[in-house]
Amino acid sequence: MRPFYALIIVTGLLFLAVGASAEPTAAPGYALETFNMPGAAFAGLSRDAGSLLVSDLASGRLYRRGADGKLVAFGPVFPHGLDVMGDPTGPYHVVRAGDVLVVAQGATPVNSDEGPFDHALVALDAAGQARVISNDFWNPFDFIVAGGTYYVIDSARNSVERVQADGRKSTLLTFRRMREAATALHSLSPTEFTEGNSYEVDAVPTGIALHDQRLHIALFGGFPFLAGAGKIVSIPEVGDASEPRLDVEGLNAPLSIAFDNDGDMLVLEHGTYNQKEGFLKGSGRLLKLNKITHDREIILDGLTRPVSVLAWDERRLVVSELGGNLYFLTRESAR
């Protein structure tokens, strides 16, 4: 069993939400459509030609959604359940890579023997046969494919890994812990976080996107998940990655990044955290950051435990939630 002390956040605290929350609201100029599958825990999103690929942590299944709007399961049932921290684990993300589909599989479920697909990148061929590309990860939460190379976020090692198609792996960057001011922490626990000091938390990388030859990485931040402590940083795809550039700060637990056809950054915030209630229902949102002015626009608000954002085309976006929801956001006119 791999240790997961560095990541108690990305799924379990999110997954345990109960009760209903208000329907999310789209910004003016956008139409919103919701699809729900009871009992599902939707995670990663990607596009495969005209189909939407979705992973479900609750069942360990991969789904394909075609033009008819129906979800059809395919491939094997991946290991799924809870990890040692009580968090749900399973197939986080599936992406087309040439003639195979590649799956990022999470930690070994508790009360299960470790299998070859756990904490691994797994390739599925057209016949549905699976082979392990590499299982030398602790928690491969997100990844992208570029030029036959996989760039993998290992959220438990706090690292970005480069993996070749034959499984050769090298670490591009391991993130240093982030320093937070005592003034922000003192209000949470005056006895534990005394004024006049500062404290460090794990950076915990989550989402990754490639744009303009730079890898953009979301830093979720570690417990106690302070409001505004999340960041987006970037490193060159080729060259020295030792000093990441700060691109965006003041975010609330950013989990996923994408870029639309105009080159604007889309950032999915998981939300704000309360020590008694966990991550607050309805506090997640999807932001759009103007590439020139860097102004932020909230284009989808009131989300509960969102996981992934996908720019489908020049007008449409898709967002997943662990509550079994898919949100389809369509820009109604050119802007």
Arithmetic mean pLDDT: 88
Basic shape: globular
Radius of gyration from the CA trace?
19 Å
Runs with pLDDT <50, length 5+?
A: 1-20
Strand sequence of the main sheet, in spatial order?
Answer: 1-28-27-24-23
DSSP summary, beta strand count: 31
Q: Hey, roughly how much beta strand do the residues contain?
A: over 45%
Number of helices: 2
| Residues in helices, as a percent range | under 10%
Q: Keywords for this structure?
A:
335 residues, mainly beta, five-stranded antiparallel β-sheet, four-stranded antiparallel β-sheet, 2 helices, 49% strand, disordered N terminus
What's the helix and strand layout?
Blueprint: H1 12-15, E1 25-26, E2 30-36, E3 42-48, E4 51-56, E5 61-65, E6 71-74, E7 81-82, E8 88-89, E9 91-97, E10 100-105, E11 120-124, E12 130-134, E13 140-146, E14 149-154, E15 159-163, E16 169-174, E17 178-181, H2 182-186, E18 198-201, E19 205-211, E20 214-219, E21 230-236, E22 245-251, E23 254-259, E24 265-269, E25 273-274, E26 278-279, E27 284-289, E28 296-303, E29 306-311, E30 316-321, E31 325-331
Antiparallel strand pairs: 1-28, 2-31, 3-4, 4-5, 5-6, 7-8, 9-10, 10-11, 11-12, 13-14, 14-15, 15-16, 17-18, 19-20, 20-21, 21-22, 23-24, 24-27, 25-26, 27-28, 29-30, 30-31
